[in-house]
Specification:
Produces ATP from ADP in the presence of a proton gradient across the membrane. The V-type beta chain is a regulatory subunit. The protein is an alpha/beta fold. The protein is built from 16 helices and 21 strands. Strands 9, 11, 12, 13, 14, 15, 16, 17, 18 and 19 form a 10-stranded mixed beta sheet that branches.
């Protein structure tokens, strides 16, 4: 029989301090007071002084409360009956369903032994072109979504939960507003995805310390499903709230603060959670996708800054879109060569042309006259933003690749893209096919609001900006004189290079100033 302690030396926030023997780090204890019994966990040991974190908060606990150590760490029940259920951060039912007590498993264990891992080799399809084509999500990958306040990161996670081609979704929410919790619950239920999901939700109105349990509980359950051969996708939001809860506890315990008041072990604590991502040899996999909000849109904030050193890339969410520049999936090369022969070519070509489009926008803002090539880039960039980058676009990978070809064919000639002739012959659509594909895809995708409050589609924008019929030579790149190097290149048969002599933009500001 374990000893019961009847005296608490100090209470600081949600941390209680007492003198005890034979307590272990991470051990659970029950704290009984006039308001009932609460669970607490040992978070620090200084000789015979024991610091316990009370999960339900210390309100109502007096110094004469009874403390009894349980001799075990935090555990969470695991069962197939978890699917379709919603729990709080400590694993208590939030959906008024029966409590599950089967097969308790410990949480917060070490990462999987590397010899049990295999090299990532399978793609996780999401139906979002900016992920599937340009920054492919791979099984066992750990990726953050860096976002500033006000960006639709929770709706993005909900869409991924609905569309991701995995077996099980484990959603962990930390510090959620009640409206966000209801959004996740109702959205998954209405679209039939709740039956394959488990939700562990901590709201902002609940004790802060319970936010620390959510990632560990979610990942412990995901690991058990993965050992049973399931492909599991863990969605966490928001890891900055998790770090803020750590910061609050560290300040209460009077730890020496590090950068901006966060504890010195912030990196280790984040890594311990992200490193749970794994592809088991002969079993399932765990893929981790976690929102990390950036206060003040500051990527040097300690939480996103430390996260970037742990994860295998990142997604940047800006302006309601996944930003192609800065977003990166370091494992995409493991899978995007196995999807379709044109996947990597479309990815590289479209991003290269979109970068040129951004440069053209800068020249346009500075008053440069737009050449024929610039006008093509402007047309291409608008279509790319509306039909590829918009988060409301939902397309399977193959249809998204076909749409990429249609956009290229509508805006450029094959020679201007620099794509290999073999791929051009196989995938390049005719003008008619490109137009029909554009019209079909614009009907399938939601129509963005125009500036005047009306509705418009990408195809209608293209129709409005369509130039008058004229000679094709007007828009063609200007020929340049052949040199010896050109003759050598021609003799080597390398005729598929992209033209490097596009018409130069002219600054018309000087012309205006020189007129009388």
């Amino acid at each position: 029989m374990r000893k019961v302690y009847h005296r608490i030396d100090n209470i600081a926030g949600n941390v209680i301090i007492l003198t005890a023997t034979d307590a272990a780090y991470g051990e659970l204890a029950s704290v009984t007071s006039t308001r009932g019994t609460s669970l607490a966990q040992v978070i620090r040991l200084e000789g015979d002084r024991v610091f316990l974190q009370v999960f339900a908060g210390s309100r109502g606990i007096a110094t004469d409360a009874q403390v009894r150590f349980l001799g075990r760490g935090m555990e969470i029940p695991f069962s197939e009956h978890l699917l379709g259920r919603i729990f709080d951060g400590a694993g208590r039912p939030r959906d008024r369903g029966p409590e599950i007590r089967d097969n308790p498993v410990p949480i917060g264990g070490p990462p999987v032994n590397p010899i049990r891992r295999v090299i990532p080799r399978h793609m996780v399809r999401t139906g979002i072109p900016m992920i599937d084509i340009f920054n492919t999500l791979v099984e066992s990958q750990k990726l953050p979504i860096f976002s500033s306040a006000g960006e639709p990161y929770n709706p993005l996670l909900a869409r991924i939960a609905l569309q991701a081609e995995v077996d099980i979704i484990v959603l962990g929410g930390m510090g959620l507003k009640h409206d966000d919790y209801l959004f996740f619950r109702d959205h998954l239920e209405e679209h039939g995805a709740l039956s394959r999901s488990v939700l562990y939700i901590h709201t902002a109105a609940e004790p802060t310390v319970e936010a620390l349990l959510v990632p560990d509980v979610s990942l412990a359950v995901a690991e058990q499903f993965a050992l049973d051969g399931k492909r599991v996708l863990v969605l966490l939001t928001d890891m900055t709230n998790f770090a803020d809860a750590m910061k609050e506890i560290a300040i209460t315990m009077e730890q020496i603060p590090s950068n901006r008041g966060y504890p010195g072990d912030l990196y280790s604590q984040l890594a311990a959670r992200y490193e749970k991502a794994v592809d088991f040899d002969g079993a399932g996999s765990i893929t981790v996708l976690a929102v990390t909000s950036m206060p003040g849109d500051d990527v040097t904030h300690p939480v996103p800054d430390n996260t970037g050193y742990i994860t295998e890339g990142q997604f940047y969410l800006r302006g309601g879109r996944i930003e192609p520049f800065g977003s990166l999936s370091r494992l995409k090369q493991q899978v995007n060569g196995k999807t379709r022969p044109d996947h990597r070519t479309i990815m590289n070509t479209m991003i290269q042309l979109f970068a040129s489009y951004r440069e053209t926008l800068e020249k346009q803002a500075m008053g440069f006259r737009m050449s024929g090539w610039d006008k093509k880039l402007l047309k291409y960039g608008k279509r790319f933003e509306n039909e590829m980058m918009d988060l409301s676009v939902n397309l399977p990978l193959e249809k998204a690749l076909d749409l990429g070809w249609a956009i290229l064919a509508d805006c450029f000639t094959p020679e201007e893209t620099g794509i290999q002739s073999a791929l051009i012959r196989e995938y390049w659509p005719s003008k008619k096919d490109a137009k029909e594909s554009s019209e079909v895809d614009s009907k399938d995708s939601p129509e963005p609001d125009s500036e005047d409050g009306g509705k418009r589609t990408p195809s209608s924008d293209a129709a409005k900006t369509k130039p008058e019929p004229r000679d094709e030579a007007d828009d063609a790149p200007e020929p340049r004189k052949k040199s010896g190097a050109d003759d050598e290149a021609a003799s080597s048969g390398d005729s598929e290079e992209r033209p490097d002599a596009h018409p130069k933009s002219e600054n018309i500001q000087g012309e205006k100033d020189s007129k009388p």
